[in-house]
Design a protein that fits this description.
Length: about 280
Amino acid sequence: MGDVLAGFHAVWEFESDSVLIRYERGIRTPKLFQALGERRIPLSAVEGVTLAPGRRGTVVLSLRPRPGADPLMEAADGQLKEGSDPYRLVLPAERETLAEYYADELKGLLTESGPAERHLVAPPETPLQFKAYDGKASFDGTSVQFRWSWTGASSAKWKAGDQSFAVADLSGLEWRSPEVFEGHLRLIRRSADAAAPAQPDQDPASVVFGLGYGPVHESLPFAAAVLAAMRSRAAVTSVPVAPSRRDPADIAERIRHLGELHQAGLVTDEEFSSKKAELLAEL
């Protein structure tokens, strides 16, 4: 379409295969939007479009992402407040006719639905870090580090010492919004003997949020980036070997994606060479 629709806090640019969302940086703009800056949403990551009346003389144009297509929304797990939903564009009511036109155009371009096999929306860029109530969390793209604060960390965490978790050793994570009671970020390890304590403040694989500590605009992009790195690595290590020949274009795309992961440091030289050889063998 190549057109632009400006609303409160964001501008949507419609392209033939995606929607480019540029978030404003004004004082009234939600901090999460400011942190995200700009996001390109492939239409393959969207399964629905809605237009509904908003508050105080506004209308709201919304995209509904496919489950599993966006690491940010997967990490949020439905906990974002309506005003912080990055897939909503709030417009003055007088633009309803124009918004309805774009909604209809988008609906005609959507072809995918249901859970996505992999993330289709780019995750927040690393390195990332934020200050939690009981420590400082940082992520460089390959490992997560927790450094405990002497004023907030429990004795159990001090006893365990500062922690470092390689992406390869993680099987999942749990983000609980700091805007609700007992917010935290918990990493789930693969090892069978790594059963987590019931309370996050006693778990060395968790950091606890508090008033002003681990805010949504810092801790959620962090969680999304870690989750995306985990999913990407899992997808590479479980590439199936097809019994028959595959479409060369599909193989080329998989090798390109594998190369990106290798460049980002998420795949070792040995893993890259091995998986590339397996994919080439399918031709």
